[in-house]
Design a protein that fits this description.
single chain, alpha/beta, Rossmann fold, 7-stranded mixed sheet, 8 helices, Esterase, AB_hydrolase_fold
């Protein structure tokens, strides 16, 4: 397991955004950070982009067979969450600059990881799950049995994402509707936004909208 962290924004800000990313996400990170700043009304924040090159392994909460390509899904999400807690967040505590609000977000499988991590700990005051892979086998059942502890949760999906020929991934529309209903039933402040297009469209801007929404809703001190 190896991670690379890039920091954007103000390291001393009271709001910390954490996003698990791959190389494609990093290419659009400057644009995403700029969009978060504009959409949030120029709120001050620090963004920690945590890159992994073992996407299917490091972000999966449990093992599952491949649904595209040949790479199966691993079960290293607990280790990834431990890294965020022990390395990213402990660094803030040691420096005496612990942020007041911490938002975990991500796109695709990183969005699924954010939702899962939000069930594991209460350190995240917000979760921004953008086009999350909630088609992941067993995840909606998991969410029925485990509550997301974050105060605010943003969900989104492209309106063409469920129109795939892949029978597993085609369940994403029904799955995200189920997740939204489960969150509402627990009293979580949440929204479900439908974006135009498929899974691969405007990922940086969609993610910026998610973080900005959570920043605007979350007032926990």
């Amino acid at each position: 397991m190896s991670f690379h962290v890039e920091t954007f924004g103000n390291p001393d800000a009271d709001i910390l955004l954490i996003q698990m990313v791959d190389d494609h996400d990093l290419e659009g990170m400057e644009q995403e950070v700029s969009a978060v700043r504009e959409l949030s009304g120029k709120q001050d924040f620090c963004m920690k982009a945590v890159r992994t090159d073992r996407w299917n392994i490091d972000l999966s909460p449990w093992q599952a067979p491949a649904v595209f390509g040949k790479e199966n899904f691993g079960e290293s999400a607990p280790e990834t969450l431990a890294y965020l807690q022990n390395e990213i967040l402990s660094g803030f505590r040691l420096s005496g600059k612990k942020p007041k609000r911490i938002v975990l977000g991500g796109y695709s499988l990183a969005g699924l990881f954010a939702l899962w991590a939000g069930c594991q700990t209460d350190i995240f005051s917000g979760v921004a799950a953008v086009s999350p892979s909630v088609w992941f086998p067993g995840f909606t059942d998991y969410l029925r049995e485990n509550r997301v502890h974050a105060d605010a949760v943003y969900l989104s999906l492209g309106d063409r994402e469920e129109r795939t020929r892949n029978p597993v991934m085609a369940q994403v529309g029904n799955a995200i509707r189920t997740c939204f209903d489960l969150l509402k039933d627990t009293g979580t402040d949440c929204t479900l936004e439908w974006n135009n297009g498929n899974h691969f469209q405007d990922s940086d801007y969609r993610t910026a909208k998610a973080f900005a929404w959570v920043m605007g809703r979350d007032d926990r001190s």
